[in-house]
């Protein structure tokens, strides 16, 4: 474990996701060849935490089975019937050692573009300042639906107030809570024991831990993220599509920087699990999925769809070809 690695990362994945209108749990919907949850877990694993916990409740069997197959290091913990993010974290802490000390990172299973580098910056600020609570925030032109970050005149983070509980003046604030935190483990345990459900939704709010820390005179701060996509959550199909498109744009941009040619990025889709060598050329409409690997100088024709296949260096895949490594006679 690195010196700045957290003692634990808690990924919250217990929500119903009703706005997805799907029999599939929200966190198991996919973009870029991975579930939303696996994107979040991959970012968390990059921190090399001592403990990695995923809090589950809705469709728990499906989520737990997915974790076992895709992220066996993660430990699933059940949230009980008490609602709220604060209760979810309390359930996770109950499954961790009582003498746990150091930073505890809390993130969400439906924020797929959040990366390890941003989490590392959050932990570094938390440790460097000796904060009790450090939170990720961003500023939005339309902050509707998000918790607002309240600051003192000197800029100190004082509290987070949820949209439903905010006054008109507070609702005018554009800096919002991203729902990603680094907590001091000892403060987190003490604060959670004092939280109630006296709010508009009758839930245990994790955000109240921020106010508890400030009220006790403990240091708090926020790491402001200027790239709002990194903290964009997914609550419905439209957001899923937008996040998928943005992830694909970033994936293609990264490959092009490494020497891959993409004729038309707007129509080309490449999963994050695909491997491409230098001077590969992807023609318009190409779709590369799963564990596909393309050798140096290979050319993938227009509208070809490749799934879990190895294409050797210098090969040419014909336009409209369909190759699937799991289907006999179609892989190469």
Automatic annotation (TrEMBL):
<dbReference type="InterPro" id="IPR050065">
    <property type="entry name" value="GlmU-like"/>
</dbReference>
<keyword id="KW-0808">Transferase</keyword>
<keyword id="KW-0961">Cell wall biogenesis/degradation</keyword>
<keyword id="KW-0133">Cell shape</keyword>
<dbReference type="InterPro" id="IPR025877">
    <property type="entry name" value="MobA-like_NTP_Trfase"/>
</dbReference>
<keyword id="KW-0479">Metal-binding</keyword>
<keyword id="KW-0460">Magnesium</keyword>
<comment type="function">
    <text>Catalyzes the last two sequential reactions in the de novo biosynthetic pathway for UDP-N-acetylglucosamine (UDP-GlcNAc). The C-terminal domain catalyzes the transfer of acetyl group from acetyl coenzyme A to glucosamine-1-phosphate (GlcN-1-P) to produce N-acetylglucosamine-1-phosphate (GlcNAc-1-P), which is converted into UDP-GlcNAc by the transfer of uridine 5-monophosphate (from uridine 5-triphosphate), a reaction catalyzed by the N-terminal domain.</text>
</comment>
<dbReference type="GO" id="GO:0003977">
    <property type="term" value="F:UDP-N-acetylglucosamine diphosphorylase activity"/>
</dbReference>
<comment type="similarity">
    <text>In the C-terminal section; belongs to the transferase hexapeptide repeat family.</text>
</comment>
<dbReference type="InterPro" id="IPR029044">
    <property type="entry name" value="Nucleotide-diphossugar_trans"/>
</dbReference>
<dbReference type="Pfam" id="PF12804">
    <property type="entry name" value="NTP_transf_3"/>
</dbReference>
<dbReference type="GO" id="GO:0019134">
    <property type="term" value="F:glucosamine-1-phosphate N-acetyltransferase activity"/>
</dbReference>
<dbReference type="GO" id="GO:0071555">
    <property type="term" value="P:cell wall organization"/>
</dbReference>
<dbReference type="InterPro" id="IPR011004">
    <property type="entry name" value="Trimer_LpxA-like_sf"/>
</dbReference>
<keyword id="KW-0963">Cytoplasm</keyword>
<keyword id="KW-0548">Nucleotidyltransferase</keyword>
<protein>
    <submittedName>
        <fullName>Bifunctional protein GlmU</fullName>
    </submittedName>
</protein>
<keyword id="KW-0573">Peptidoglycan synthesis</keyword>
<keyword id="KW-0012">Acyltransferase</keyword>
<dbReference type="GO" id="GO:0008360">
    <property type="term" value="P:regulation of cell shape"/>
</dbReference>
<dbReference type="GO" id="GO:0046872">
    <property type="term" value="F:metal ion binding"/>
</dbReference>
<dbReference type="GO" id="GO:0009252">
    <property type="term" value="P:peptidoglycan biosynthetic process"/>
</dbReference>
<feature type="domain" description="MobA-like NTP transferase">
    <location>
        <begin position="9"/>
        <end position="139"/>
    </location>
</feature>
<comment type="similarity">
    <text>In the N-terminal section; belongs to the N-acetylglucosamine-1-phosphate uridyltransferase family.</text>
</comment>
<keyword id="KW-0511">Multifunctional enzyme</keyword>
